[in-house]
Amino acid sequence: MSYFNNNALTAEKSYEQKTAWVYLLNLGFYFVPLFFMQGQWLNIIVALLILVPFIFGYFWAYNSSTQKALYPIILMLTCAIVATPFTSGTISLFSFVCFFIGFFYTLRTATLGFLAICLLLLLLNQVVNIEGYYFAFYGMGISLGVGFFGIIEQNRQRIKRQHKRSQDEITQLATALERERIARDLHDIMGHNLSSIALKAELAGKLLHANQLDLAQTQLSQLAEIARDSLSQIRQTVSNYKHKGLQACLPKLIQSLRDQGIEVNVEGDTPSSTDLTESQLALILTEAINNCLKHSHAEKVSLIFAQDEHHIHLSLSQNTAAKEITEGNGLKGIRERVDLLNGTFEYQTTPVFQLNITLPNATH
Q1: For residue 187, what pLDDT is reported?
Q2: What 3-state DSSP class applies to 317?
Q3: Which long-range contacts link 229-233 to residues 24+ away (Cβ below 8 Å)?
Q4: pLDDT for the residue 328
Q5: How big is the CA angle at 127 (ends 122 and 132), to the nearest 5 degrees?
């Protein structure tokens, strides 16, 4: 369980790191004043050079923990202060600083940080001798607004972590309950039988010692019958564990689609049939939905179930067409499972991909 959870968290973190470049588009506001600084090449060059440590600090902060975030924030703030005499576009740099302050720290600490940035902007406006107060006031408005988004993002991440922990706790609890159920079932099945086997084996040994062979043979025969019955019960119990049925499988498959942002529409009641039919149908749906997740760009998937006295019908369709496909292991496996149940299997790739399966409705 922890292995899969760690893989999911790693994949999510990797995705967030890849998208970190997107937010740097806000640096476009940093470049705007540079276009109007004709002939001021020294200022332009210095302003561009300062971006190098600033971007380094940005990615440093993006991958930092709360305990270590202060260092990249100080680096970014220093770059913003140093660049201010050369360009007023540093307003965008201060907004990045405020975002990370809002993201990493408590509301009280973030509020104090925002106040310090506002006072710093007023001070820089005076020291650099910028005409008017547009630099200070615009900088305050933008920095506070972006800082507020940092607070929102912090809350979103916290809720996501809490939700993840809740899911893990529910999964662990379900696993513990399942283990208890298995232990209870095995105890109920084998506890009495093993006691009987021990008693009859002991009794048979005493009868053999007393040379009462006929009675000993009777006890040994009963012992063998109990052992065979126990073996049969264990096999039946294991078979029941393996067969979860379509009712248990379907919600997880639907959730896997929704986790990828795919809308799912289900029509009709989940069919009920023999263990073999239901288990094969669950495996067919698992393969079909896995193929949808791996190979399609669908935004919507529809599942339609229908059942009558003689047949079970399943239709799976997505709202996009499929490229020209050959029957690989996935479709081949579905066809083999359908053939095993003497059913029919058809699919189309255009104008939308659709899979249709008809199976005989065997009685329980």
Answers
A1: 65
A2: strand
A3: 229/193, 230/189, 230/190, 230/193, 230/194, 230/197, 233/189, 233/193
A4: 60
A5: 60
- 208-245: burial string, b at 16+ Cβ within 10 Å, e else: eeeeeeeebeebbeebeebeeebeebeeebeeeeeeeb
Tens digits of per-residue pLDDT, 237-292?
Answer: 665 555 556 777 788 888 888 877 888 898 888 887 777 788 778 878 888 887 78
Query: Within a 10 A sphere around the Cβ of 340, how many other Cβ atoms?
Result: 12
Whole-prediction pTM: 0.51
Residues of the chain with pLDDT under 50: 1-15, 364
Indicate the burial class of 320 (C-beta count within 10 angstroms; 0-12, 13-18, 19 or more). middle
Domain range summary for the chain, segments of one domain joined by +: 1-242, 245-360
Beta-bridge partners for 347: 355
Backbone φ and ψ of 149, nearest 5°: -65, -30
Count of alpha carbons within 13 Å of 38, Cβ hemisphere only?
1
Q: Strand 344-348's sheet: what is its strand order?
A: 263-267, 300-307, 311-318, 354-360, 344-348
Contact 343, 357 (CB under 8 A): yes
DSSP secondary structure string, 140-170? Answer: HHHHHHHHHHHHHHHHHHHHHHHHHHHHHHH
In this prediction, residue 4 carries a pLDDT of: 33
Dist CA 345 CA 359 (whole Å): 9
Q: CATH classification of 245-360, choosing from 3.40.50.280, 3.50.50.60, 3.30.565.10, 3.40.470.10? A: 3.30.565.10
